[in-house]
Amino acid sequence: MPEVHFEIAWPDGSTEVCYSPSAVIKKYFQVGESYSLEDFVARCSEALNSGSERVKAKYGRPCGLALGQLEQIEAKAKTYQDDPSQTVQLIQFK
User: Fold this and answer.
1) Contact at 8 Å (CB) between 35 and 14?
2) CA-based, 20 to 30 A from 4: which of 48, 63, 67, 86?
């Protein structure tokens, strides 16, 4: 399973490199696109849980790194929840 790192820009302009255990993340995001906070978190949830399930199918246990990454994304997104019109941009896949 090819792991993928993806770089995002948060609404405040800070950037972060995130982890996915599977290239399935590329089915949920387009490079250069911006997503509302709610949509971004929902897409991350679907993609990272899907990747974790692929790991579970292959190795017998879910991917703790993917689930931890999702928790970090959800926590960071909550810091911007006062203005739901803010967006997160996918900068690149690495």
Assistant:
1) no
2) 86
Residue 90 one-letter amino acid? L
For the chain, domain boundaries: 4-93
Separation of alpha carbons 85 and 3, rounded Å: 31
Number of H helices, E strands in the chain: 2, 4
Distance between terminal CA atoms of the chain? 15
Q: Where are the beta strands (DSSP E) in the chain?
A: 4-9, 15-20, 34-36, 87-93
Asked if 73 contacts 41 with a C-beta cutoff of 8 angstroms, the reply is yes
Token duo for residue 55: 């790991």
* pLDDT single digits (tens) 84-94: 789 999 999 99
pLDDT of residue 1: 64
Tokens of 48: 């990272």
pTM comes to 0.93
pLDDT of residue 25: 96
